[in-house]
């Protein structure tokens, strides 16, 4: 049975399908579905991957059925034109497919599932009239002849073939019946059909008038389709870039120079050095001033002892506060500068970058890696400097009290460095693998949220959950190995430190009585205990710093993304009134998306007179959207010129060009916020001006304004 759902915009057609799927909570009543369902949303949802994977959608391959599906969805010619056919890897959200191609891919996905019930939300709106008619005949009337089909449509020509037509208005079914019966009944359905016919007649009249005014079109060379016999294979979506080997010293130096040109680094080291000197001095003072035995007289007065000690302790507290303040200031400034630099590079990246980079990778770097830079790296760097200075101070004290310790400290340091190098070689690569493995998890999560209705409509929740768990396992494996490697290093460092401390104690005990003062021996024991912890902490802090600095390394990779042309070219700025007439001339325009891909526009030459309404038609994938992108220089032409009012647009800045043009994209994008903010995002217009440009939507906005703040 074929059920058509029609009605004016906002009447509740899509909501009806969503309620059948259970996507909208029911206030009352119930919905019962007998059999499996397949859902095709109004806005195409395409997964990253190749076209075959999108069509199969987790089902096993049946070659004969697959070929029938391709034919029914009019995809055969498109696949022949694509470089690798159905193995072509499409980018994030199918960004390198046309709107019609994406819609037909998701129609093929639904048909291949061989479901019992098909819910189609205006499936032919994104394709041209000829393709739409062919799709309706081959897809709905032929391939789904034995299925239950509920399709939403605004195209009246598809209504007579329906067994039942539902007319919706304000969320209610106002009429139901067959096409002829509803026409005879008049009212809402008759008004819809009449409005459609009037629109067609108006367009025909306009077409006749235009041909009467100018019977000859502008001189143009058509878009020729050429094929390359030999093409280099290259994936559309590239593997994520990952460095190997040691982190370059330039990464450390560049990071330290981000905040105030690195002037805070020596101040941090100085503050930590002063803190350590004063701390050692306070301990030494107490050890020297106190009586060595019960009968000895104090070396200084109690008040002097206390005042000097408190002064030294207060001074060390001041310097440690200054050090912490400098580290926090440095970390905040460096993080802000890095984030702004990365954000500018991403925003100024060419469209080819977004075609080949899934959104999960970008989100990973601007969220996870940036979070490490914000909250961790500056303190890791400060902690490493602090531990290094403390370790040097401890060695200095112990060398002064028990110089024999130096005999073992040197080989201990060599052993520690060997273990550190042995550990860091694996730990560093594990951290890089972790960063790379996190991107697919984030990408699948964002992709699943965007296509939640489709996933639930096809009953694919378990498959996506299984895929998510698999990706989490891929992420957890190097994470577990990284944690195990840390424990491996800690165990050996503790054993080595314990051995060194035992050696120090053996030396102190073996000294003859009177060789060393008891207070100094106590000082040596105290610092010997600290030596164990500080040596281990020094090695670990360096290893963790190098692991964390990889986030800076990854951010710098995005800071090196090739940028678009300059926003403004001072000596080539057009006048404020440009373009005055709006004449557009294309001269031998050639466009390709990437150097290794075939041309999309092949030497197009034509003239668009100013003030005229120009229609660009063609089969889906023929290059219509590409031509618009070339006008905005989202894609730089491979050859030829685009001239607007006697100015070659390739010679002016992108801001000067794009700020003078307007576009209604094929896939509209709305930003979070109010309707007014979306209408005037730059806040350049008064309320009255906004009301004047949308008189046709006055009632709809008033209704929204009654419930919400517009």
UniProtKB/TrEMBL annotation:
It is a multi-pass membrane protein. One of its GO terms (cellular component) is membrane. It is found in: Membrane. Keywords: ATP-binding, Membrane, Nucleotide-binding, Repeat, Translocase, Transmembrane, Transmembrane helix, Transport. It comes from the Eukaryota. Residues 211-241 are annotated as: Disordered. The chain crosses the membrane at residues 263-286, 306-334, 377-397, 403-424, 495-511. Residues 267-537 form the ABC transmembrane type-1 domain. Residues 1-195 form the ABC transporter domain. One of its GO terms (molecular function) is ATP binding. Pfam families: ABC_membrane, ABC_tran. InterPro entries: AAA+_ATPase (IPR003593), ABC1_TM_dom (IPR011527), ABC1_TM_sf (IPR036640), ABC_transporter-like_ATP-bd (IPR003439), ABC_transporter-like_CS (IPR017871), ABC_transporter_C-like (IPR050173), ABCC_6TM_D2 (IPR044726), P-loop_NTPase (IPR027417). Belongs to the ABC transporter superfamily. ABCC family. Conjugate transporter (TC 3.A.1.208) subfamily. This is Uncharacterized protein. It comes from Digitaria exilis.
């Amino acid at each position: 049975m074929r059920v058509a759902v029609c009605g004016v915009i906002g009447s509740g057609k899509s909501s009806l399908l969503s309620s059948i799927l259970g996507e909208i909570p029911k206030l009352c009543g119930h919905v019962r579905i007998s059999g499996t369902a397949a859902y095709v949303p109004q806005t195409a949802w395409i997964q990253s991957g190749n076209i075959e994977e999108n069509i199969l959608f987790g089902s096993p391959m049946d070659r004969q059925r697959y070929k029938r599906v391709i034919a029914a969805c009019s995809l055969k010619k498109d696949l022949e034109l694509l470089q690798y056919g159905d193995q072509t890897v499409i980018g994030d959200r199918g960004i390198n497919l046309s709107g019609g191609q994406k819609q037909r891919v998701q129609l093929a996905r639904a048909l291949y599932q061989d479901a019992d019930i098909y819910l189609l939300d205006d499936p032919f709106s994104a394709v041209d009239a000829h393709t739409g008619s062919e799709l309706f005949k081959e897809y709905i009337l032929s391939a789904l002849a034995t299925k239950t089909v509920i399709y939403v449509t605004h195209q009246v020509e598809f209504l007579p073939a329906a067994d039942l037509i539902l007319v919706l208005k304000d969320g209610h079914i106002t009429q139901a019946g067959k096409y002829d019966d509803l026409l005879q009944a008049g009212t809402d359905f008759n008004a819809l059909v009449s409005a459609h016919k009037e629109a067609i007649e108006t367009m025909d009249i306009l077409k006749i008038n235009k041909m009467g005014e100018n019977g000859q079109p502008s001189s143009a060379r058509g878009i020729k389709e050429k094929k390359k016999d030999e093409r280099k294979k290259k994936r559309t979506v590239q593997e994520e870039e990952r460095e190997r080997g040691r982190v370059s010293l330039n990464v450390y130096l560049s990071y330290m120079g981000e905040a105030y040109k690195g002037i805070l680094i020596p101040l941090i080291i100085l503050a930590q050095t002063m803190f350590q000197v004063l701390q050692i001095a306070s301990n030494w003072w107490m050890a020297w001033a106190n009586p060595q035995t019960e009968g000895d007289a104090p070396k200084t007065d109690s008040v002097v002892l206390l005042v000097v000690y408190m002064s030294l302790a207060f001074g060390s507290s001041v310097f440690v506060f200054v050090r912490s303040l400098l580290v926090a200031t440095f970390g905040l400034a460096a993080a802000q500068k890095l984030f702004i630099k990365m954000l500018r590079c991403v925003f100024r990246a060419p469209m080819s970058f977004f075609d080949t980079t899934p959104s999960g990778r970008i989100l990973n770097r601007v969220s996870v890696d940036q979070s490490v830079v914000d909250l961790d790296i500056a303190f890791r760097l400060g902690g490493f400097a602090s531990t290094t200075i403390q370790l040097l101070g401890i060695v200095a004290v112990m060398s002064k009290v028990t110089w024999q310790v130096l005999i073992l400290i040197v080989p201990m340091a060599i052993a520690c460095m060997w273990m550190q190098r042995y550990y860091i070689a694996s730990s560093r690569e594990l951290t890089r693998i972790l960063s790379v493995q996190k991107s697919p998890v984030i990408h699948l999560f964002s992709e699943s949220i965007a296509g939640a209705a489709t996933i639930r409509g096809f009953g694919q929740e378990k498959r996506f959950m299984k895929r998510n768990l698999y990706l989490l396992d891929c992420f957890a494996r190097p994470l577990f190995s990284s944690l195990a490697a840390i424990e491996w290093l800690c165990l050996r460092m503790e054993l080595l430190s314990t051995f060194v401390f035992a050696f120090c104690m053996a030396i102190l005990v073996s000294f003859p009585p009177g060789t060393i003062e008891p207070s100094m021996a106590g000082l040596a024991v105290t610092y010997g205990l600290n030596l164990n912890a500080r040596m281990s902490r020094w090695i670990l802090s360096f290893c963790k710093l190098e692991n964390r600095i990889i986030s800076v390394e990854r951010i710098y990779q995005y800071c090196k993304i090739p940028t678009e042309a300059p926003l403004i070219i001072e000596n080539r700025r057009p006048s404020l009134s440009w373009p005055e007439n709006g004449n557009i001339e294309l001269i031998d325009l050639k466009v390709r998306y990437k150097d290794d891909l075939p041309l999309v526009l092949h030497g197009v030459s034509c003239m668009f007179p100013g003030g005229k309404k120009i229609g660009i038609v063609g089969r889906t994938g023929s290059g219509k959207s590409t031509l618009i992108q070339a006008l905005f220089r989202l894609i730089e032409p491979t050859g030829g010129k685009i001239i607007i009012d006697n100015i070659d647009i390739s010679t002016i800045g992108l801001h000067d060009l794009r700020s003078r043009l307007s576009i209604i994209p094929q896939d509209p994008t709305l930003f979070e916020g109010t309707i007014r903010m979306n209408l005037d995002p730059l806040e350049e217009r008064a309320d009255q001006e906004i009301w004047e440009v949308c008189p046709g939507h006055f009632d709809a906005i008033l209704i929204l304004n009654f419930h919400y703040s517009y």
